[in-house]
Specification:
Its cofactor is NAD(+); Co(2+); Zn(2+). With 366 residues, the chain is an alpha/beta fold. The chain has two domains: 166 residues, Rossmann fold (3-Layer(aba) Sandwich), CATH 3.40.50.1970; 191 residues, Dehydroquinate synthase-like - alpha domain (Dehydroquinate synthase-like, alpha domain). It contains 13 helices and eleven strands. The strands form three sheets. The chain has a seven-stranded mixed β-sheet with strand order 1-2-9-6-5-3-4, sandwiched between helices. A two-stranded antiparallel ribbon has the order 7-8. Strand 7 and strand 8 form a beta hairpin. The longest helix is centred in the middle third of the chain and has 20 residues. The site of ligand LNCXM5UN has 10 residues, from loops.
């Protein structure tokens, strides 16, 4: 077991994100003192992890709430089934929720914790790279609706987050790669050292036991921690910085693609495509240099993520993008780069630029 790293998320209700190998014994310490009952929210597919995990909480009354795997969990009916079970168990405000799973599980479980009795404590134990570097940190929770992704939810910060890299041993390679989508995103918006690491490391060596993967995970968490500490509820940044919206880099198109594909594409894959799209958009709308646009294609492509896409007609995607949370009235807003790690908001780009950027995405490098 290597020494764990602790990253503090310094919001008004600060909490720790603990990262390391074999650190699950820290779970008990992250739960609020006084919790007597714990509801573990976890997908059926991770059943093998459950028994040893529940043993860590052997001195408490443990209730297991099994939810569907992946994106199917992010549904209000699944949340309602969880509320019903918590009611049957008589869960009170001193009890706590623990999530064990990927980002879909932490989003759903966080939402259940946010809404039960108007909010009970939650500790996230993410089991994917993506959930470790992004979904479990920062307190965004929610479910999807037919109109789009994450359209119902709330901000509900965890009491703690435990990232045990040993849990990644069983994670399929495609899921590791998808998680790197959010990591590379952080490289472009805030921490160029991430890009240097990705550009100089053999991507095949980024396995769960790799020190470079650990450094990438820790750097991405640090980016997220700093951003949410400055603008937890996405009300805006200072000095022209987009504030928390910066974490949404590439997400306007990504969410539209996820909806258009009925969530058959991984979130991290859609984010990679969406980041190439906003780079192409920034090149047209405000002259982002071509070498930086191509660096997007190269960095996401190097780790095995898609950088081209033409799976839906532009009008369909545009209609979905209009319900993106960054939109205001009829005006679309995007986070774009002025330069590396210099993000700004682009409000109301022309439809010509939006279309041309989509055409460039379909055609690959231009
Ligand atoms: N709240 C936020 O701030 C935030 C940030 C980023 C992403 N998200 C959300 O996170 C979701 C994506 O998360 P994800 O990529 O983790 O997907 P996911 O939760 O769907 O998990 C991906 C797959 O990996 C499997 N899996 C999980 N852990 C495993 C393990 N240790 N071993 C083997 N298989 C394992 C799951 O069963 C699932 O099939 C999206 O819904 C996205 O919107 C939220
Ligand atoms: O934490 C944030 O803020 C983010 O935007 C992180 C994103 O990676 C994440 O996918 C988030 O769920 C998107 O949120 P939404 O507000 O666009 O639904
Ligand atoms: Zn995301």
């Amino acid at each position: 077991m290597s020494t764990p790293t602790t990253i503090r998320v310094a919001t008004a209700s600060p909490y720790d994100v603990v990262v390391g190998h074999g650190v699950l014994d820290r779970l008990r310490g992250l739960l609020p003192t006084g919790a007597q009952r714990v509801a573990i929210i976890t997908p059926e597919s991770l059943e093998d992890l459950l028994d040893p995990f529940a043993e860590l909480l052997a001195d408490l009354e443990v209730v297991v709430l099994q939810v569907p795997d992946g994106e199917e969990a992010k549904d209000w009916e699944v949340a309602a089934a969880c509320w019903e079970q918590l009611g049957e168990e008589g869960f009170t405000r001193s009890d706590a929720v623990v999530t064990l799973g990927g980002g879909a599980t932490t989003d759903l479980g966080g939402f259940v914790a946010a809404t039960w009795l108007r909010g009970v404590a939650v500790v996230h134990v993410p089991t994917t790279v993506l959930a470790m570097v992004d979904a479990a940190v920062g307190g965004k929770t929610g479910v999807n609706t037919p109109a789009g992704k994450n359209l119902v939810g709330s901000f509900h910060e965890p009491a703690g987050v435990l990232c045990d890299l040993a849990l990644l041993a069983t994670l399929p390679r495609a899921e590791v790669v998808a998680g790197l989508g959010e990591v590379v995103k952080c490289g472009f918006i805030a921490d160029p050292r991430i890009l240097e690491l990705v550009e100089t490391t053999d991507p095949a060596s980024l396995t769960p036991d790799s020190p470079v993967l650990r450094e990438l995970v820790e750097r991405a968490i640090a980016v997220k921690a700093e951003v949410v500490a400055g603008d937890l509820k996405e009300t805006g940044g200072v000095d022209g910085h987009p504030g928390r919206e910066v974490l949404n880099y590439g997400h306007t198109l990504a969410h539209a693609i996820e909806r258009a594909t009925d969530y058959s594409i991984r979130h991290g894959e859609a984010v990679a495509i969406g980041c190439v799209y906003v780079a192409e958009l920034a090149a047209r709308a405000q002259g982002l240099p071509r070498d930086l646009v191509e660096r997007h294609r190269a960095a996401f492509g190097r780790v095995g993520l898609p950088t081209t896409w033409d799976g839906a007609d532009f009008a369909t995607l545009l209609a979905t993008m209009r319900v993106d949370k960054k939109a205001r009235g009829n005006q679309l807003r995007f986070v774009v780069l002025e330069d590396l790690a210099r993000p700004v908001v682009l409000a109301g780009p022309s439809e010509d630029d939006l279309r041309a950027a989509y055409a460039a995405l379909a055609g690959g490098a231009s």
